[in-house]
Amino acid sequence: MAHVQSDAFLKWALPRMGLAWPGFRRVRRQVVKRIGRRLAELHLPGMDAYRSFLESHSAEWETLDSFCRITISRFFRDAAAFDLLAREILPRLAEVAIARGQKFLRAWSAGCASGEEPYSLNLLWKSTLAPRFPKLALAIVATDADERVLARAHTACYPAASLRELPAGWRNAAFRCDGRLFCLKPEFREGVEFFAQDLRREAPIGPFDLVLCRNLAFTYFDAAGQAQVLDRIGAVLSEGGALAIGRKERLPGGAKGFAPWIAERGVYRKAAVSSVPANAASASRRMSSARPV
Ligand SMILES: C[S@@+](CC[C@H](N)C(=O)[O-])C[C@H]1O[C@@H](n2cnc3c(N)ncnc32)[C@H](O)[C@@H]1O
């Protein structure tokens, strides 16, 4: 019965925040647990009472929105995707960047959680590709809406479980064990900048050669939100730049403005003639509320 009530509540509330129930179905327990704690704090008897509370306290929507952030991540999550980045995507992007006279290969990790994804990319670059492209540096911008996970990204210390997909030997090479946590060595943190940003509203200033948007927009956002995010990414990607999405995700609406690169692995590139609307480009340039953290 409790399940039925909480599912009904989520089906009512999620679309009001631009979020999609199907994406949350599997992970709803986490969200419901957080809401349960909030009900106790507010001395409310159940989901129906919380719904009434939301209807009369508009500021509460922001609190509920923060309960709906699924922050699961780990280093080299979906190791095959990082293998593909190392073998094919990054070398090709690096060659193009060098041909264009760039000193930096620029990447954006959208929804970076506690830094596991951008630091994995940095580790990959520094350990395997930097020696091959000595004149090119990797610069990574990492954004997330959740200040708590960003604080952890700055500390860069993780439990062993976060490192379970790390290639053999890299744990000792890149981390120092600090009691029960593994802390990333400073040389592998260099080159990654974190910003607090809501992907539904803004993007960092581009251009980027690579965008990783995995296990966020194309799982949890509603159809309109997904389309907007795709436009926003298209607006900050350089011509021919790559977009990598999660293993189980699909691009919305015929992937407008993108062409498959290795589509079966969720890798696309910005199509030569962009169909990104001008207003999406200017919206991403505004970025005024982005705060470095
Ligand atoms: C499931 S994690 C994915 C992390 C990483 N990309 C990966 O694949 O392992 C989703 C992350 O997106 C963040 N997030 C949720 N909603 C967001 C939003 N509207 N804007 C930016 N980040 C958001 C969450 O805080 C969380 O850290």
Structure description:
The chain has 13 helices and 11 strands. It has an 8-stranded mixed beta sheet. The longest helix is centred in the first third of the chain and has 21 residues, at 79-99. It is α/β, with parallel strands linked by helices. Helix 6 (79-99) packs across helix 7 (116-129) and helix 12 (223-236) packs across helix 13. The radius of gyration is 20 Å and the shape is globular. The N and C termini lie far apart (42 Å). The structure holds S-adenosylmethionine. Residues 69-73, 77, 111, 113, 116-117, 144-146, 149, 198-200, 214-216 line the site of S-adenosylmethionine (SAM). Residues 69-73, 77, 111, 113, 116-117, 144-146, 149, 198-200, 214-216 line the site of S-adenosylmethionine.
Compile the SSE list and pairings:
Elements lengths: L1 H12 L7 H4 L3 H15 L4 H10 L3 H8 L11 H21 L4 E7 L5 H14 L7 E8 L2 H9 L1 E3 L10 H5 E4 L2 E4 L1 H4 L2 E5 L11 E6 L3 H4 L2 H14 E9 L12 E5 L4 E4 L7 H9 L4 E2 L1
Parallel strand pairs: 1-2, 1-7, 2-6, 7-8
Antiparallel strand pairs: 3-5, 4-5, 6-11, 8-10, 9-10
Helix pairs in contact: 6-7, 12-13
The protein binds S-adenosylmethionine.
The site of S-adenosylmethionine has 20 residues, from helix 7.
